[in-house]
Amino acid sequence: MAGNNLTQPIYEQVSKRNPGEVEFHQAVMEVLDSLGPVLQKHPEYVDAKILERIVEPERQIIFRVPWQDDKGNIHINRGFRFEFNSALGPYKGGLRFHPTVTASILKFLGFEQVFKNALTTLPMGGGKGGADFDPKGKSDNEVMRFCQSFMTELFRHVGPSTDIPAGDIGVGGREIGFMFGQYKRLCNEFTGVFTGKGLNWGGSFIRTEATGYGCVYFAEEMLKTRGENFEGKVCTVSGSGNVSQYTVEKLNQLGAKVVSLSDSNGTIYDPGGINDEKLAFVLDLKNVRRGRIREYAEQFGVEYLKGRRPWGIKCDCAFPSATQNEISGQDAKPLLKNGCYLVAEGANMPSTPEAIEQFIANKILFGPAKAANAGGVATSGLEMSQNSLRLSWTREEVEERLHNIMVSVHKQCYDAAEEYGQPGNLMMGANIAGFVKVADAMLGQGLV
Ligand code: NDP
Questions:
Q1: pLDDT 10s digits, 94-118
Q2: pLDDT band at 222, cuts 50/70/90?
Q3: What is the C-alpha separation between 166 and 173, in angstroms, rounded?
């Protein structure tokens, strides 16, 4: 691709400086691959070494998290925060608690977050953090002790105008509450240092729903470019956590039929559709009882595909909403063969490069994560605005703002793809539109 001679050495430097961090390399490669035409048009970015700077986090924090379980046994986890880029605002991005968390995973997420946040048009830089802690199977008290220990170190690095974490995999309302409580205690101040807070202590309406709703709004804009809507469309959704749950809810509202959900053990296939009543069962199962999706199949007498992902199920539209690299090149084949023509990424980097290659080659509607799932962080931005104003907008007002932001994110990606000669390629459009905003801000702020 044009411009590769400019980006290849940068990729090599990233690989050398971050050995073995394959997810981070993958995320960097995807962005660099899109930027050739931009660098040719803007030599000032090359001269100011914007790319070399943008791939290096501004600050990396790694720390020990000791905690005690209910039996008194001591455990040690590793905590992280990658403060990636603050050109557009304070660092903003979630915390992930999952045993697979490594520096590589969090750097890929933090890097993508920078461009995603730029696309929302709200004043937010990018960051990401978390720990290799597994909340699964832990009591509420164990999770609380872990969160308090995690925050006892992290509190000194974050703040409402410095770095504002939120949730991600394994970090929902319960964990945000425990961490916010500990921050308040240590700093002796009640400020908007987290987003995703409870509604009665500084949270925003729609934040819980935002990533799923936003992803569906983005997909609706993609369908509109072909004169279509969701009425009667058969959709597959993977995962069964926060993003998946509200993707299903919004798809139901728009007249689609969702036939799958999954977790790391398997997939349920419900050809009749996961209606609102069945979705209420999922919310209780996952958010209150913290059970497995297999129990849905037992409850409603549908098929359970043990150890499988949903991509073999026939559908019009697919919403990967669980985790990174969950659609491989092999998975993409049956998906496309069965007639799927829209993939909207609710999760971060759920499609491998081999899968994306097939989506682009087949000219299906492909909504890349940094655009399609930007609704979560956008609504976090709205939560920050409400905290600063010390007032709360109504549910309707927040949802309308979220909807408008998603329409605008789609337009920016669509227009950038057109401008740089790849009409319809929203992945390229998202990378370019996000990058240009951050690059211009970095140029304006001098060599920092
Ligand atoms: P949750 O923890 O609420 O749910 C995660 C879901 O994904 C669970 O069903 C989980 O199953 C499944 N999952 C996790 N790891 C794996 C794996 N290795 N293989 C198969 N399934 C897996 O997280 P969220 O819904 O918040 O996040 C889902 C995705 O969306 C992530 O990629 C996240 O980065 C992204 N995202 C989230 C945002 C948010 O606002 N929450 C914002 C933007 C993006 P199990 O219970 O078996 O682990």
A1: 999 999 999 999 999 999 999 999 9
A2: very high
A3: 10
CATH 3.60.160.10 corresponds to the domain 210-372: no
Tell me the helix, strand and coil percentages in the chain, rounded to 5.
Answer: 50, 15, 35
CA distance 335 to 340: 6
- 257: part of which helix (H) or strand (E)? strand 257-263
Residue whose token pair is 């069945």? 278
- As a whole number of angstroms, the distance between CA 235 and CA 257 comes to 6
- Marked catalytic residue, from 128, 286, 370, 437: 128
CATH, domain 59-189, list 3.40.50.10860, 1.20.1250.20, 2.40.160.20, 3.40.630.10: 3.40.50.10860
Ligand 1 atom 40: residue of nearest CA:
376
Other C-beta atoms lying within 10 Å of the C-beta of residue 393 = 18
1 pLDDT more than 90: no
- Determine whether the shortest distance from the Cβ of 93 to ligand 1 is under 6 A: no
Average pLDDT, the chain: 97
Ligand 1 mutation target, pool 216, 242, 274, most atoms within 8 A of CB: 242
Distance 140 CA to ligand 1 centre (A): 20
Nearest residue by C-alpha to atom 31 in ligand 1? 347
267 to 211, 277, 301: CA distances (angstroms): 21, 19, 14
- Cα distance between residue 200 and residue 77, in whole Å: 31
Residue ranges, CATH 3.40.50.10860, the chain: 59-189
Query: Residue 38: how many CA atoms within 13 Å on its side-chain side?
Result: 25
E strand or H helix that includes residue 335: helix 329-337
